[in-house]
Amino acid sequence: MRSIYIGDHTVLATTKLGAKIYVDSRDISIAPHLMMEGDWEPAVTNCMVTFLQRHKGCLFIDVGANVGWYTLLAAHFGAAHVCTFEPNPRLAELLRKTISVNGLRERVTLTEAACGAETTKARFIVDPSENGGGHTASATPQQALGAALDGAPQLCDVVRLDDAVKARHLSKGNKLTPIIMKVDVEGFEAHVLAGAPEIMVFEPILFIEHNDGDAEMIRGLQSKGYSIRHVQRTGHPSKVLTLDEAVLVPFADTLLCVPHGVDT
To answer: CATH number of the domain that 157 lies in?
Structure first.
């Protein structure tokens, strides 16, 4: 895979899909894999590709897009449209360039914001060497902040997914179904779903990063008829998990949450 440093801590890399992707050269979490292998999280990627191929023409929602690996993946494998959300200004800048250089501006809508249960502002903490780990620190800027990882934190917008997606893609006569949604927001996954009750009516297929404290979110999904599986290192989903089994999935691994009637 070819990568080239173009200055200002920016590298243009080529993915295994043949797409181009901009990354930050200071990052030691995701960027090295994209620069050297053109790939990221191969197990989750392989599992997601299976669902994208089965549901061509879907609406793909990427919450916590980072530099846009899954956004590119969805576009490559036939999503009709991708709604992608990234609150980190640096990563959003890189993602905006990636969307443009790959000719995807008509198929990808980038919102530079976090997603939550309500429209508000939040403190955003980020370490440029760990682009995979930025997170919102509080629901409102007035709340206690805690220690910043890289100097002064930044304020970011927080939007409800229903508000950001519904008007364009879920209105009557303009429905894109099914919906596949990836949520990786460092422990705020439940807040994202709380801001998406109308989207959840469409029973999206969910790829959700597992974090401590997910039990109530998992229980709520199970009550709606979702089966919860662990995306294993092979890229295959596990058997259906009970709540007790699901909360024991390794931290930061991915849970595949599939509505009733959808094949896995």
So the answer is: 3.40.50.150
pLDDT tens for 163-198 read 999 766 765 445 556 899 999 998 899 999 999 999
Biggest distance spanned by C-alpha atoms of the chain: 50
DSSP string, 164-232: HHIIIIISTT----SEEEEE--TT-HHHHHHT-HHHHTT--EEEEE--TT-HHHHHHHHHTT-EEEEB-
Q: Which domain range does residue 216 map to?
A: 40-258
pTM above 0.70, yes or no: yes
CB proximity list for 191: less than 8 A, separation 6 or greater: 115, 116, 117, 185
In a domain, 29, yes or no: no
Length of the chain: 264
Q: Report DSSP state, residue 241.
A: P
- Block residue for tokens 């597992």: 210
